[in-house]
Amino acid sequence: MVWVDAPCGWQKSFVCFDDRKTGADRYILITQFMTWYDARSYCKQHHTDLASVRNPTEHSIVGALNSGTWTWIGLVRDPWYWTDQTTNVSVIKWSPGNADDYLKNKSCVYLNGGLADVEQCSNMMPFFCYVFPTQKKTIRMKLKSSQDVNDPTIMTAIEEKLKQKLKDDGMAENITVTWRKQPDGVVFHKEEENITAVTNTRETCDL
User: Fold this and answer.
1) What is the DSSP letter of 178?
2) Distance from first CA to last CA of the chain, Å, rounded?
3) Low-confidence spans in the chain with pLDDT less than 50
4) CB contact at 8 A, 15 and 73
5) Which pick of 1, 145, 190, 196 has the fewest CB atoms within 10 Å?
6) Whole-structure pTM value
């Protein structure tokens, strides 16, 4: 038995799996032709699911049920999706005849004359990068401390705690915190018992 992929809308016979049975009896060949989705619905209604082929034993059993015709099993390929994990691809204008790629051996998309086409991901081509806009936020803080908070070691500790707090509040992982110095070049000034600090945070993203 050899494996091949095909459009899920094609109508083929299929093999169901039934976990209520034992041995080879758990695999049932259905000779009625259905699409992959209808075949799975049938198997889930009458048995357990479409058959999985996860090891040599299952490969041998399911292969023996196959009579030389294409037969659906329980393996399906995910649809197209963007690298930011969204799946809305309806706005893409595809080059005629290439969007489906029923053999599924061309898994990456490139542009050709403004139209999207598919090709193997190992092919070398020029490419576009997306630069996330830099976000800047200014935070004013008042701190109480018996230590010299202008000491570089103390400032570093405060910076790390601030970055962790921002991450806990849903900010991006890659956060850069920079201190804004006062006109006299000092970051922190005493205000009675309180120490006022003005900080400037800049969120950046790796490319």
Assistant:
1) E
2) 44
3) 193-207
4) yes
5) 190
6) 0.45
Q: Is 75 left (phi over 0), alpha (psi -120 to 50) or beta?
A: beta
Task: Classify 97 in phi/psi space as left (phi over 0), alpha (psi -120 to 50) or beta.
Answer: left
Distance CA 180, CA 127 (A): 38
Question: Dihedral sign, CA of 143, 148, 152, 153?
Answer: negative
**Amino acid identity, residue 49?**
D
Q: Collapsing DSSP states into helix, strand and coil, what is residue 89?
A: coil
Residue 206's pLDDT is: 40
CA 64 to chain centre: 37
Question: DSSP string covering 97-145, please?
Answer: T-SS-TT----EEEEETTEEEEE-TTS-------PPPPEEEEEEEEE--
Quick: pLDDT tens for 108-160. Answer: 888 887 788 878 888 898 887 766 666 667 777 777 777 787 888 888 888 88
| Residue 122 bridge partners (DSSP) | none
Task: Look up residue 152 and give its two tokens.
Answer: 């570089």
Query: How many Å apart are CA 134 and CA 38, to the nearest integer?
Result: 48
Residues 167, 168, 171, 173: what is their CA dihedral angle, to the nearest 10 degrees?
30
- Pairing relationship of beta strands 194-203 and 135-143 according to DSSP bridges: antiparallel
- Please tell me what DSSP assigns to residue 23: G
